[in-house]
Design a protein that fits this description.
About 20% of the residues lie in helices and about 25% in strands. It is an alpha+beta fold. It has one domain. This is PhzF family phenazine biosynthesis protein.
Length: about 100
């Protein structure tokens, strides 16, 4: 497997390690689907989102970000609200 650098970005919250983690690989368009899935497994992505190809380009003085995402798949919620909150570790003052 190729060696790649994986950056972690915490989305949706300002506090580190409290947001929705997104692992980012720059220039991922040179990777095959199998390589992307292997990276996702290696960094232990705990989501069904999997890998999402993203293109970033600068055009006319601004940045353009294009993502290709799989269709949404809804799954039944088979847990308690308490377990959900414990898993998400929300900051109550932010809710």
């Amino acid at each position: 497997m190729k060696t790649v650098k994986v950056y972690q970005y915490d989305a949706f919250l300002c506090e580190p390690n409290q947001g929705n983690p997104a692992d980012v690989v720059l220039n991922g368009d040179v990777l095959t689907t199998d390589e992307m899935q292997a990276i996702a497994h290696e960094v232990q992505i705990e989501t069904n989102a999997g890998t999402i190809p993203v293109a970033i380009e600068k055009a006319s003085g601004s940045w353009k970000v294009t993502m290709t995402q799989n269709p949404t798949q809804f799954k039944p919620f088979n847990s308690s609200v308490r377990q959900l909150c414990e898993a998400m570790k929300p900051v109550i003052s932010k809710i």
